[in-house]
Q: What sequence folds into this?
C-alpha cells in the first residue's frame, strides 16, 4: 500500500516538474512519516498530535 502511494506521489512530482533532489527529499520524509505512524491509514491517525510528535 505505501509503495503504491509513494509511486503516485513520485509520478505527480514528475508531472509538476520537481527536481530530482526535491523528489528524493520529499519521498524520504514521507517514508519516515509513514514509518513513524506505524503504516496506519491517514484517516485513522490523529494528525495534529502525530505531527507535533513527529
A:
Amino acid at each position: 500500500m505505501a509503495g503504491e502511494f509513494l509511486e503516485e506521489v513520485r509520478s505527480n512530482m514528475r508531472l509538476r516538474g520537481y527536481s530530482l533532489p526535491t523528489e528524493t527529499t520529499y519521498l524520504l520524509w514521507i517514508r519516515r512519516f509513514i514509518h513513524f505512524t506505524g503504516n496506519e491509514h491517514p484517516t485513522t491517525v490523529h494528525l495534529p498530535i502525530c505531527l507535533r510528535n513527529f
Residues 2-53 form one domain. The mean pLDDT is 89.
